[in-house]
């Protein structure tokens, strides 16, 4: 049975409606902040803006606070409302999504820190191309994940699941080329390592975006597709599922 | 808008309610007091006054009441003088102003006689058995002889009631007894009675009225003797208690104007019991049918309305119905079939205990049905469902769960029935009560309970004594006493049922109110 | 049913048990009070040795359905019934069926505790005495066993002769369960058994229901969703006399198939 995104505002208890809407709103707000964190971190690296980078690291605190607040709200809803069916799935999805968003925030913070090190070390812009490409991809993924969450759009979510494969491939090739570079020039080990951390963080962000997409499918369809191989997923069957 | 300062309280309503209850209780108390005083007071040995009139004529009597002569200034006083055989009347009105002197001499004696009623006067002599007592010795001698006589009289009465009368009943139309043993017994009893009679007939009393006339009084016709003016309060109390006891245990005398009401008590209680035995099963079964078994359609509703309307039918109508259907119809048929040898003297074709009980059972049937129905309706449905859900059949549910819970209500119905029936007189006059039936319907003679006999009834006794006696004045105190007794009998019957109901309710663990 | 590699026709919203594993079968049951229909063409099977819950809004027919299972509607002349109900394969409305025996095999516990105005012992022994032929020793043992089964023995063992009405509400309800258990039913119908009780008694009754599963099939009507979710294995959702959805409780309460079910469970207006 498909649910629409406005379904959580149709309870007889208006207060319950409000609580659930607020959960979604707060999650979206957190998602927006996290999206910006990722963007700023990458910008800081690519444009050599260490001040921006340090700001990103600072703002991570706000992200953590938001997760704690969202978790607390979810706990309240569980205790007081004993939600069932799609309400229950929403609360569980929000808890899990909050956790993943917080991790994305951590990864963004890591990117920013490494960026600052690179900038301070002034080691040129080797590897930036790969970073730019992957980061674009990953940022789009995060944005799409949040959009699919907001719109309860499983088709979009399922597309993301497949995209993560691509990101992994890009990451692998980027890592290979950086390794090669590192082996050629011994002086570049330190900056390359930093870049590698950055790439790794970006790859992780992609994984987390993938998780968000899985939560959307759980929320809307009631299917838990975590740990299922993408090849085994029959998107059409899922879409058709009543 | 109501202000906050309005005086709180519930207005006049609690007072009205409490006042109504108080008023009802007061009226009830007044009734009982009136009955008690006028009735029980009769047995108190009143002092006999020796009245000397202005014109010199003395008489002895008990003052009863005073009245204002209408239209005149003077008052009249009524004295009970007894001595009907001497004066022709037992009562005497005297103008108070004509009284010269009143004294209460201790030696004035009151005798209760089985013929001619009471005697007021002096005891001169006692003779009998070769003895002759006068003066001071006369009174003790009288006492002694009276107690001896009582023993003899008891034996004679017992022989008559237990032996002679039952045997006489068995006399066939020719006046003979079939069984040789019975004949012998009857002859022996008659002989003994004659012996006793002659032993008793020996004594003679010489009595003198206060105005000097003398009479000879055979002692065997004297029931009791006492000297009220010489009795201490304790003696009077003893005499009063004795009088009450006699009232309860003796049969009536002098056309119901004197004596006791024992047969009437017995008859009333017996009839009420028989009636209860008949009405309870029918009423309960009818109530169960109407409430539990019958399809609740328009016909059942009609029957229910009919039953409730029956409760309003006047009692005399039931009497007429009983007379027509039970007495003449069924009773006549029974006589033809089973007692044809006694005809034309009716056995069941006339009023009797059975027909009276049945008639009153009909009278009270609606009450019992309604009470049972109400009780059944009060049993909650969830109790019935609970029993059914355990695998009980309809019958088992009714008998094991519903009816035990309805018992208090059924008893209430019975209480109401008893209260109504014990007080009804009109229908009984048509179907079975007798002015005089000193033989109670239960005796040692098979079949022990004689349903065809007429019986006496307290209510009817009151009516008869008050309106049909030739000496209403004398009967009046007995009327009050009997009325008090009737109230008490009903009270006892009701209390018994109420106790039973309370006990039942307590046993079921349900909260019960008296 | 796999939703991974092959598309399969998903089963409808009503689970079907095999006849061999069901205690009660309801086939095409329609019931009306005079002109007013109460149940419309219901078909479902109640599994053996499980707890099945009926939920639904007021007037949906869940109590009506429950009472049809032990023919309590026989008492009501207005009721018109079509369709069949089978207990262990036998039609309960067949003419030769002994209704009293049916009601012994399919026991019922009602919403408000309704102990008889007798002693505790007599309440439990009531059904036994109906059967008859039991000696006192055996009856004592059975009464004790029944009270144990209802988790009431410890609380009343010293006052078996006291009136049943001296017990608290929760104890009375357990007493009612004990007296129903005493006659060894196969199925136990419970019509909102805890709705009149305080929370602790409610939990005790629920615990009792769970423990009884091993011996009986239980059918529970409740308007308390959480209770249905806690206690039952299978839940049937009825609305306006129709069976809307019937499936395993854990699925129905996390991911119901039909929107109507979802709306009712989560308390939505539409």
TrEMBL record, chain A:
Q: Which GO terms describe its biological process?
A: intracellular phosphate ion homeostasis; negative regulation of phosphate metabolic process; phosphate ion transport
User: Does Cytoplasm count among this protein's keywords?
Assistant: yes
Which residues are in the PhoU domain?
A: 28-114, 134-216
Keyword presence, Protease: no
Pfam families in the record: PhoU
Primary site of residence: cytoplasm
Give the UniProt entry's GO cellular component terms: cytoplasm
Q: Which InterPro entries match?
A: PhoU, PhoU-like_sf, PhoU_dom
Q: Which UniProt keywords apply?
A: Cytoplasm, Phosphate transport, Transport
- List the subcellular locations: Cytoplasm
Note the PANTHER family from the entry. Answer: PHOSPHATE-SPECIFIC TRANSPORT SYSTEM ACCESSORY PROTEIN PHOU
What functional role does this protein have? Plays a role in the regulation of phosphate uptake.
Instruction: Give the record's family classification.
Output: Belongs to the PhoU family.
Assembly with partners or alone = Homodimer.
Please identify the protein, giving its name as recorded. Answer: Phosphate-specific transport system accessory protein PhoU
Which classification does the entry list for the species?
Bacteria, Pseudomonadati, Pseudomonadota, Gammaproteobacteria, Oceanospirillales
Source gene?
phoU
């Amino acid at each position: 049975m498909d649910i629409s995104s406005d379904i959580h505002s149709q309870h007889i208890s208006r207060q319950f409606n409000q609580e659930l809407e607020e959960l979604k709103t707060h999650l979206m707000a957190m998602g927006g902040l996290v999206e910006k964190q990722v963007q700023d971190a990458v910008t800081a690296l690519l444009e050599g803006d260490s001040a921006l980078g340090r700001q990103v690291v600072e703002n991570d605190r706000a992200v953590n606070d938001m997760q704690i607040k969202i978790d607390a709200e979810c706990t309240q809803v569980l205790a007081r409302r004993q939600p069932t069916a799609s309400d229950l799935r929403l609360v569980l999805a929000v808890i899990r999504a909050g956790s993943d968003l917080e991790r994305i925030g951590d990864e963004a913070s890591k990117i920013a820190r490494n960026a600052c090190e690179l900038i301070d070390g002034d080691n040129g812009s080797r590897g930036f191309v790969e970073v730019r490409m992957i980061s674009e991809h990953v940022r789009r993924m995060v944005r799409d994940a949040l959009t699919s969450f907001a719109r309860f759009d499983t088709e979009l979510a399922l597309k993301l699941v497949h995209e993560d494969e691509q990101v992994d491939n890009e990451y692998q090739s980027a890592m290979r080329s950086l390794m090669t570079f590192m082996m050629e020039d011994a002086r570049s080990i330190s900056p390359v390592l930093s870049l590698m951390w950055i790439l790794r963080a970006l790859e992780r962000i992609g994984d987390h975006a993938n998780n968000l997409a899985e939560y959307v499918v759980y929320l809307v369809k009631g299917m838990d597709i975590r740990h299922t191989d993408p090849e085994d997923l029959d998107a059409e069957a899922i879409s058709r599922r009543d | 808008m109501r202000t906050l300062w309005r005086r709180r309280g519930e207005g006049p309503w609690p007072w009205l309610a409490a006042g109504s209850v108080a008023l009802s209780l007061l009226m009830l108390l007044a009734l009982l007091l009136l009955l008690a005083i006028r009735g029980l007071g009769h047995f108190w040995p009143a002092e006999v006054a020796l009245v000397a009139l202005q014109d010199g004529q003395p008489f002895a009597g008990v003052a009863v009441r005073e009245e204002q002569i209408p239209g005149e200034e003077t008052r009249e006083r009524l004295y009970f003088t007894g001595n009907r055989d001497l004066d022709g009347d037992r009562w005497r009105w005297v103008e108070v102003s004509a009284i010269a002197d009143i004294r209460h001499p201790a030696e004035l004696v009151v005798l209760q006689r089985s013929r001619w009623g009471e005697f007021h006067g002096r005891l001169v002599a006692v003779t009998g058995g070769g003895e002759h007592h006068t003066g001071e010795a006369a009174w003790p001698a009288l006492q002694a002889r009276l107690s001896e006589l009582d023993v003899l009289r008891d034996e004679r009465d017992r022989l008559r009631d237990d032996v002679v009368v039952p045997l006489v009943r068995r006399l066939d139309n020719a006046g003979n007894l079939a069984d040789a043993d019975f004949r012998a017994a009857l002859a022996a009893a008659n002989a003994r009675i004659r012996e006793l009679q002659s032993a008793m007939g020996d004594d003679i009393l010489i009595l003198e009225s206060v105005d000097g006339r003398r009479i000879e009084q055979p002692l065997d016709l004297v029931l009791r003797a006492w000297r009220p003016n010489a009795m201490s309060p304790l003696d009077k109390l003893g005499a009063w208690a004795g009088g009450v006891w006699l009232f309860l245990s003796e049969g009536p005398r002098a056309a119901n104007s004197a004596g006791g009401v024992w047969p009437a008590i017995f008859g009333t209680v017996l009839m009420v019991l028989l009636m209860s035995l008949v009405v309870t099963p029918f009423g309960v079964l009818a109530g169960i049918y109407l409430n539990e078994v019958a399809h609740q359609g328009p016909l059942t509703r009609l029957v229910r309305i009919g039953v409730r309307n029956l409760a309003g039918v006047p009692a005399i109508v039931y009497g007429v119905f009983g007379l027509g259907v039970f007495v003449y119809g069924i009773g006549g048929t029974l006589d033809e079939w089973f007692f044809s040898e006694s005809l034309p003297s009716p056995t069941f074709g006339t009023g009797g205990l059975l027909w009276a009980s049945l008639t009153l059972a009909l009278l009270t049937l609606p009450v019992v049905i309604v009470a049972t129905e109400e009780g059944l309706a009060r049993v909650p449905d969830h109790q019935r469902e609970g029993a059914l859900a355990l695998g009980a059949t309809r019958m088992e549910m009714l008998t094991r769960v519903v009816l035990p819970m309805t018992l208090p209500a059924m008893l209430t119905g019975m209480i109401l029935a008893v209260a109504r029936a014990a007080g009804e007189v009109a229908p009984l006059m048509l179907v079975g009560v007798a002015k005089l039936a000193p033989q109670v319907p239960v005796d040692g003679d098979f079949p022990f309970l004689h349903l065809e006999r007429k019986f006496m009834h307290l209510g009817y006794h009151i009516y008869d004594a008050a309106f049909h006696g030739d000496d209403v004045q004398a009967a009046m105190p007995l009327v009050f006493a009997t009325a008090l007794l009737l109230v008490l009998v009903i009270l006892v019957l009701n209390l018994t049922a109420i106790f039973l109901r309370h006990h039942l309710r307590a046993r079921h663990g349900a909260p019960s109110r008296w | 049913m796999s939703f991974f590699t092959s598309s399969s026709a998903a089963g409808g919203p009503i689970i079907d048990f095999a006849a061999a594993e069901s205690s009660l079968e309801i086939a095409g049951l329609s019931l009306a009070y005079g002109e007013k229909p109460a149940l419309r063409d219901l078909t479902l099977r109640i599994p053996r040795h499980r707890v099945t819950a009926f939920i639904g809004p007021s007037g949906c027919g869940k109590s009506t359905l429950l009472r049809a299972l032990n023919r309590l509607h026989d008492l009501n002349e207005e009721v018109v019934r079509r369709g069949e109900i089978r207990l262990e394969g036998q039609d309960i409305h067949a003419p030769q069926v002994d209704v009293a025996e049916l009601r012994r095999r399919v026991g019922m516990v009602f919403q408000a505790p309704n102990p008889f105005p007798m002693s505790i012992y007599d309440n439990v022994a009531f059904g036994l005495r109906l059967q008859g032929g039991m000696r006192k020793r055996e009856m004592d043992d059975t009464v004790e066993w029944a009270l144990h089964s209802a988790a009431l023995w410890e609380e009343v063992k010293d006052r078996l002769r006291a009136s049943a009405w001296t017990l608290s509400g929760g104890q009375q309800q357990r007493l009612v369960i004990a007296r129903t258990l005493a006659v060894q039913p196969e199925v136990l119908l419970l019509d909102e058994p805890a709705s009149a009780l305080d929370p602790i008694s409610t939990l005790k009754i629920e615990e009792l229901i769970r423990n009884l599963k091993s011996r009986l099939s239980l059918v529970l009507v409740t308007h308390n969703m959480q209770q249905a979710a806690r206690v039952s294995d299978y839940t049937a959702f009825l609305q306006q006399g129709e069976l809307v959805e019937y499936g395993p409780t854990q699925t129905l309460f996390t991911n119901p198939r039909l929107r109507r079910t979802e709306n009712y469970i989560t308390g939505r207006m539409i």
